[in-house]
Amino acid sequence: MAVREAAVIVECANKSYGQQNVLNDLDLTVEKGTIYGLLGPSGCGKTTLLSCIVGRRSLDSGNVWVLGGKPGEKGSGVPGPRVGYMPQDIALVGEFTVRDAVYYFGRIYGMEHKKMTERFEFLSSLLDLPSGNRLIKNCSGGQQRRVSLAAALVHDPELLILDEPTVGLDPVLREQIWKFLTDVAQQGTTVIITTHYIDETKQAHKIGLLRDGQLLAEDSPDEILRKFECNTLEEAFLKLALAQYEIPQRRPPPTVSPDVIPESRQIESVYESRETFNAVNGSTDVLTKKEKSIRSRNLSRSRYKAVFIKCIQQFCRHPGGLIFSILFPIIEVVAFFLAVGHDPRDLQIAVVNEEAVFSPFGLDICRRSDLQTTKLLKDGTCELYMLGCWFLEEMENKELVQTVYNSTEEAKSAVATGKLYAALHFAQNFSEALGLRVAEGEVADRTLAESNIRVWLDMTNHQISYFIKQQLHKAYESFTKRVMRACDRPENIIQIPVNFHDPIYGKKEPEMVGYMAPGILITIIFFLPSVVTSTLMIGDRLEGVWERSAVAGVRPREMLNVHIALQSVVIVVQTIEMMVLAFAGYGIPSRGSNITCGILLFLQGLSGMCYGFLLSVYCTSHTMAFFVATGSFYPMILLCGILWPLEGMSGGLRYFALALPFTIPSNSLRDMFEKGASITDSTVYNGFLVTFLWIFITLGLILLRLKYKKT
Ligand SMILES: Nc1ncnc2c1ncn2[C@@H]1O[C@H](COP(=O)(O)OP(=O)(O)OP(=O)(O)O)[C@@H](O)[C@H]1O
After folding, report:
1. Considering the entire predicted model, what is its pTM?
2. What ipTM was estimated for this complex?
3. What is the mean pLDDT of residues 413-417?
């Protein structure tokens, strides 16, 4: 018997998922230039076997040889252009048009545009494809399946692996596809096809009946029918299934020759050997080392081009993604500057002014223009009257608005019921007692008590109550200065003896917004790319696009590089948008170099993108990525120091907070904004170092994962 070449040999293959044994000492041989129909019930391991053949999964034990090499080995061409793979899922980008989907794979295989167009026209008419401009997501299930098949056929590969290509197609089209497969097999292409329509495999040269991870039979359809004395393959399959455990298991020793079918499994071939189609499709065996290297470089360039065009198409045809990437930074920065960090305004305070109530004009006395609150006497003393009115004036200048109450009980009850934030009380003798207290120093307890302004606060609202306290202190300061001036005394005499000079950095009256802005800008630029990246990548993976591209030969590194390049452009746009808004729109100071600030923001965006990539390779679903993202972003924001200073955290936690991606960089950016610090200052270069460290660590973890886990 003649020794014939084999396209695929699987030997003693074992594969389990946890406790589940999916392939069980499986042997399979596919001759070059034949159609092999792989049959079996759902879940019997067909897809698993195919993914081991195309090099996307590895066996636990056993051997696979494909087109003379081991899948995944350097130079084997598998995964790569020698194989055309149609997975069970559609595995095409929804934003592709029908033409884009086919061209994407054509580009990956390095096909010229003219050749791709010819093939597309041919496959369009063969498979009755929808219009080339229709988006995949708008095609019906059957149409998507046909486009998916066209994408596997575009480069006329040596080996076609088709996982249920005819599901959901009408009988005429199924017949047409089988006729096409028979034709290409005649020209030398090897086809492995799985199907649930057992009957259609009559047209295959050989069929393998797979059940419980074992091949129950592997022969030509006619031979199977003859051996089992059945009229239909379905009948034969049933007989075999029933007899499965009664047939003694065949176990030949492992072969070491990948190109030759073991003698025991040779069958007569009815076809001539395969003709090569062109340089892309042919084997690389005849090429010199230099030619191989040039070819490999050209192919890599085509793959970059294909992935680049795919990402652009995906991005441009995804309005949500565009809005998220370009408009969200603007919306978030504007929302922050409009809403956060500004002083509260028009805070209502309950005021009980007994001094005014018992005056001849009642509460109206404070509004009288002829009210004389101070009177400088000849002996140099100063008479004080209705000073509460002055205090209230100063208080209103500080955004605290008085609401008049008649008694302290009523005022306190208004605070207790949440109507107002604070209650304030002036005693009937307030001015007189204050005068005595200032003039004599030592006064009776009663006088001392009457000279006090009594305040009751609702301290549950931390920001508001501290703001009111601060404003009352300021009102007191300006009130006493005014009184002292009116009494011809030095205005600072009754101030607290602490003098605040002009600050070394920052404004005398800084707003919280200036402190928070650097941290907020960094969190936004970190957060957006990480969400976009993880969503796109997980989407690609779940839809099978990543997997399918990998079988076509695209390396994870190539996907990563293209994504980094494209996201970098988006991050540059986001950085510019945010800086223009912060500096020009909202007057955030920029005392340091704008370029250094921009570079730090850009690098933070890159770090966020790498973080998103990390989520996408370690999380198996959008939901899991969402949980991890939310679970990690909150601590990062809470601990980065923009909400509460690190000095308020315990020692261990503080060190942990410092190691987070935007704690130190936020300080660096603030120092550049407010103090004009430069890259030579440790506060700034530390921010850059932390950012680089995060980028390298996340990239390392990504590459590690991609290296050791293919799917
Ligand atoms: N990644 C995985 N992790 C765990 N179990 C898996 C995994 N992939 C497949 N399996 C299990 O392995 C078995 C074989 O799956 P496989 O997809 O290979 O079957 P199949 O023959 O292709 O089925 P179908 O005809 O329904 O597509 C199934 O029971 C499936 O649940």
Report:
1. 0.76
2. 0.96
3. 95
For 202, the token pair is: 């009559």
Which atom of ligand 1 lies at the shortest distance from residue 44's CA?
21
Distance between Cα 624 and ligand 1 center (Å):
22
Structure tokens at 375: 């009177």
Contacting residues for 442 by C-beta, under 8 A, at least 6 apart: none
- Give the CA dihedral 514, 517, 519, 525, nearest 10 degrees: -160
Q: Name residue 376's amino acid.
A: L
- Residue 421 and residue 464 in contact, taking contact as beta carbons nearer than 8 Å: yes
Alpha-carbon distance of 150 to 118, in angstroms, equals 13
Distances (CA, A) of 349 to 450, 470, 473: 20, 14, 15
DSSP state of 224: H
- Nearest CA, atom 5, ligand 1: 17
**Dist. CA 49 → ligand 1 center (Å):** 10
User: At 348, which amino acid appears?
Assistant: Q
Round to whole Å and give the CA distance between 567 and 605.
9
Neighbouring residues of 681: CB distance < 8 A, sequence distance ≥ 6: 671
Q: What is the pLDDT of residue 284?
A: 45
> What separation in Å is there between the alpha carbon of 240 and the centre of ligand 1?
22
Mean per-residue pLDDT for 165-193? Answer: 87
Contacts of 88 (CB under 8 A, 6+ apart): 47, 163, 164
**Which tops the pLDDT comparison, 202 or 290?**
202
Tell me the best of 24, 38, 44, 210 to mutate to test the pocket of ligand 1, counting ligand atoms within 8 Å of each CB and taking the most. 44
Question: Ligand 1 pocket by C-beta < 6 Å: which residues?
Answer: 17, 20, 22, 40, 42-48, 88
Cα distances (angstroms) measured from residue 162 to each of 166, 350, 359, 419:
9, 79, 98, 72
Provide the residue type at 135 as one letter.
L
DSSP letter (8 states) at residue 91: -
- Using the mean position of ligand 1's atoms as its centre, give its distance from the Cα of residue 158 in Å: 26
Supply the pLDDT for residue 249.
Answer: 47
* pLDDT surpassing 60 at residue 402: yes
* Cross-strand bridge partners of residue 31: 6
For the chain, what is the total number of helices (H) and then of strands (E)? 24, 15
Q: Are 384 and 455 in contact (CB under 8 A)?
A: no
